[in-house]
Design goal:
Layout: H1 20-31, H2 48-51, H3 57-68, H4 90-110, E1 115-118, H5 139-150, E2 155-159, H6 166-171, E3 178-185, E4 206-211, H7 217-235, E5 239-243, H8 261-278, E6 283-286, H9 297-309, H10 321-331, H11 360-372
Parallel strand pairs: 1-6, 2-3, 2-5, 3-4, 5-6
Amino acid sequence: MWDEAVTGYDFGPDHPMDPVRLHLTRRLVHALELDREVEVVSAKPAGESTLRLVHREDYIEAVKAASADPGAADTSYGLGTMDDPAFAGMHEVSSLIAGLSVGAAEAVWRGDALHAVNFAGGLHHAMPGGASGFCIYNDASLAIARLLELGAERVAYVDVDVHHGDGVQAAFWEDPRVLTISMHEHPRTLFPQTGWPQETGAEGSAVNLALPAGTGDAGWVRAFHAVVPELIADFRPDVLVTQHGADTHFEDPLAHLAVSLDAQRAVQVACHELAHEYAGGKWVALGGGGYAVVEVVPRSWAHLVAVAAGRPVAPETMIPEAWRQEVFARTRQPAPARMTDGRWPVEWESWEAGYDPADRLDQAVRATRSAVFPLRGLLA
């Protein structure tokens, strides 16, 4: 899913969410010739009836008003704040990003595509009645709500952004048809200070895996496999929706995990495999956070597109020189030379091999399993 207009989601020159990350990702997808493996399509912006599947009408009206007159933004809705500055056209571009994710969900549900990717999406902090954490409309929640409207009986949402997927959890807190799983840095050390293991939703439908600051590749991948596959296997979703914020990376300036591009790629591959094993292959993959906008984000999401396209890019692949030159011309920053950080294959130990009760990572995994698994009839 792509429309150049998504780069208009721009909070200003001093904001960490620089839309150049979207442009550079799209150009890298092209430079790697992945265009030959995918159909690149746009979609209509989400209309009001679609937005109201998740968002309150008064909030939508507040966004429209701020979009028309940014100086009059109502801060009680989280608009016009430091995190979410108001800007002209905000409603229109936010609706477009939401429409791309909804369009991705519709295409997968109809069978027009087995997988669909919207790396401009994944704006998982927006609440039904307010903006939060750089997010205006919650496209992930809207895609899930549309799938339910179309007849999906079970939708699983897996969020591996460094920040808790609080907006999606809130939207479906009381809905056992939606299983939300968020693997994120511990709320003690990172916004939005939610996502504790004890937040379990209706019948254990919310799962939160809160990892200690400093977690690296082996622990991150181990934690994912210690929790996510068993829950997906039990839930058997009709569709798998995943959010792939790139801000878990060790170079990201806004968080404190130490994950490489190689580990991000490994989890993308794992999500692809889970979709095929338990959801009939139906997979909607979204972007999310990521503030190392040259070094990390384009490579991470180009890998995501490649994995979804069935043509994974080998970790040792050198990046085309034309893209590197474009990066420098546009940003005056040197571009990375190869597609990952040289840590492939990522080595990790399975949960079944045993755990160390003194290890902070294993303590985090145990806390999540103990809080949720018994609620779902699984052994902790």
